[in-house]
């Protein structure tokens, strides 16, 4: 039985970042189609998204957002080989577009090539002035997979600094603090997740585990019960083991 802290649903961060840039006048249609393509990605209409991006490229062959959108769709469809070829070609044609490096970093993370991922995320950070939170988050994940825990922790904190609602970054930082027996810090991170999303069963479970390890079993049981109500089976098992 696994009753340890739960990484939950955010161990794999699968969505690539479509990084927006400023546009010149006369690109209203392309801008609208890129936004539509991004919305379709969010609702998993990948075929619809790729059609929108292809129309943009037929109008504006140099539109990096649309090209990166197609790379994103290929990645999400599981065709990482083709996505990798496309992103390498895109970087060769435009080596100053941050989104391409972010996308290649995500592909490298998926392929367990974490050192390459870190290089690309670092390059994206040097080129990008917005959306930094997700870049730091995913660089932190790559570092964590290389057991560079201290540096990963710094990246998760930077991700939070740039977006105080980054649930994934709080969760990873909380997990590291828990494993380092820094239970009060872990509880603070899980508290923040619950403030953002009160129905997050994983956060309730993880907070309960940190409280239990801190010796606050009665409060831990309250969280186990809430997590169990939200459908977390591990929490239901912990109630039987710890809360009778």
Structural overview:
The protein is mainly alpha-helical. The chain is built from 13 helices and no strands. The longest helix has 15 residues. The radius of gyration is 20 Å and the shape is elongated.
Notable features of this structure?
13 helices, 71% helix, elongated
The structural class is: mainly alpha
- Summarize the main sheet: none
Task: Classify the beta-strand content into a percent band.
Answer: under 5%
Low-confidence stretches: 9-23
Helical element count? 13
Mean pLDDT: 90
Q: What is the element layout, followed by pairings?
A:
Layout: H1 28-42, H2 46-59, H3 64-76, H4 80-93, H5 98-110, H6 114-127, H7 132-145, H8 149-162, H9 167-179, H10 183-196, H11 201-213, H12 217-229, H13 233-242
Helix pairs in contact: 1-2, 1-3, 2-3, 3-4, 3-5, 4-5, 5-6, 5-7, 6-7, 7-8, 8-9, 9-10, 10-11, 11-12, 12-13
Outline:
Helix 1 (28-42) packs antiparallel against helix 2 (46-59), helix 5 (98-110) packs antiparallel against helix 6 and helix 5 runs parallel beside helix 7.
């Amino acid at each position: 039985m696994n009753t340890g802290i739960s990484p939950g649903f955010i161990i794999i961060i699968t969505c690539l970042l479509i990084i927006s840039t400023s546009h010149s006048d006369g690109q209203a249609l392309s801008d609208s189609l890129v936004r539509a393509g991004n919305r379709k990605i969010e609702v998993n209409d990948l075929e619809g998204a790729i059609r929108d991006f292809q129309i943009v490229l037929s109008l504006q062959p140099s539109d990096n957002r649309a090209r990166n959108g197609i790379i994103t769709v290929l990645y999400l469809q599981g065709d990482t080989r083709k996505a990798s070829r496309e992103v390498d070609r895109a970087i060769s044609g435009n080596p100053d577009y941050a989104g391409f490096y972010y996308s290649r970093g995500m592909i490298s993370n998926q392929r367990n090539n974490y050192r390459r991922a870190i290089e690309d995320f670092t390059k994206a950070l040097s080129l990008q002035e917005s959306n930094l939170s997700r870049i730091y988050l995913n660089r932190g994940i790559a570092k964590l997979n290389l057991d560079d825990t201290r540096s990963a922790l710094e990246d998760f904190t930077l991700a939070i600094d740039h977006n105080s609602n980054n649930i994934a970054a709080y969760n990873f930082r909380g997990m590291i603090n828990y494993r380092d027996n820094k239970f009060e810090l872990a509880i603070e991170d899980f508290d923040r997740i619950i403030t953002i999303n009160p129905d997050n069963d994983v956060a309730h479970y993880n907070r309960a585990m940190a409280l239990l390890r801190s010796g606050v079993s009665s409060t831990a049981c309250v969280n186990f019960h809430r997590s169990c109500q939200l459908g977390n089976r591990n929490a239901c098992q912990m109630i039987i083991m710890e809360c009778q």
